[in-house]
Amino acid sequence: MSYKAFVFDAYGTLFDVHSAVSRHSDLVGANAARLSEIWRNKQLEYTWTRSGMGNYKEFWLLTTEALDFALEFVPDVNRDARQKLLDAYMTLDCYSEVPAVLKGLQERGYKTAILSNGSPDMLNSAIESAGLSDVLDDAFSVHSVGVFKTNFATYSMVTKAYGIEPSQVSFQSSNRWDAAAASNFGFDVCWINRTNQPDEYQDMPPKRIIQDLNELLD
Question: Residue 131's pLDDT is what?
Answer without folding.
Answer: 98
